[in-house]
Amino acid sequence: MNIILFGPPGAGKGTQGDKIVKNFNLYKVSTGDLLREEIKKNINLGNKIKSIIDKGLLVSDNIINDLLIKIFSDKKLYNRLIFDGYPRNLEQARNLDTCLKKYKQKISCVLCLNVEKKLILKRILGRQTCINCGLIFNEYFMPATSKNHSCDPKFLNKRSDDNEKTVTNRFETYLNKTLPILDFYKEQNLLHHINGMLEIDQIFDEIRAIIASLET
Ligand code: ADP
Q1: Which of 5, 19, 20, 141, CA to CA, is 20 to 30 A from 26?
Q2: Average pLDDT along the chain, 216 residues, taken 10 residues at a time
Q3: Measured between alpha carbons, how far is 58 from 177 in angstroms, rounded to an integer?
Q4: Residue 13 appears among annotated catalytic residues
Q5: Which of 128, 35, 48, 126 shows the shortest CA–CA distance to 88?
Q6: Domains, the chain, ranges and CATH?
Q7: Ligand 1: residues whose CB is within 6 Å?
């Protein structure tokens, strides 16, 4: 099955995506992560991408399509994809449909994580990612300790776009460009709304039940 995780920045798509991957043996495709990899690898294109991300805008569809081509055509990943942060506008949603059709696949469900803006801000401004193991923590809600994290604290990193000004722009971009996609998936009966304001494990229980019901 292929799943889309949908929701505003800071809704917990990355956290829930990692849990789904572990429990259902899927492969997570985070266009945000792919772009951050590109920034590290490729100086010229990377600088261009970073300046767009730091403004809270969307990177061009061409760049995103180039990053995804390998994934769609990879036989090992056939029907095992979970998309986090993609598609981000209607054009990308249509392109995703075309690519999946080409490789004889489809979207099984769209899980929309709903979270109030006030909580989003707290989640994003407190977010820390370990650049060594990839685990995500939060200074306010779930600080990294010796019990839940075995890497050196020096690896804990704040994203350059996780500041108040960029977050406000990211949220605007979400409202204007990304949110309109929901109707596209609602019309196809693929949309499931999830309360993203609960505890991480409670949210995952909701998600697990939905995915399990699709498998039968
Ligand atoms: P968040 O979940 O907080 O939005 P991401 O890591 O998914 O964070 O994305 C960070 C930034 O990367 C976005 O604000 C945007 O600039 C860029 N980006 C990520 N995915 C896409 C995409 N599919 N299309 C265009 N830009 C993207």
Answers
A1: 141
A2: 96 94 95 94 91 96 93 92 97 95 94 94 93 92 94 94 94 96 96 95 97 83
A3: 9
A4: yes
A5: 35
A6: 3-116+165-215 (3.40.50.300), 127-161 (no CATH)
A7: 9-10, 13, 31-32, 35, 52-53, 56-59, 64, 85-86, 88, 92, 161, 170
Q: How far apart are CA 111 and CA 1, in angstroms?
A: 13
The reported pTM is: 0.91
Rounded to 5°, the CA angle 85-162-169 comes to 70
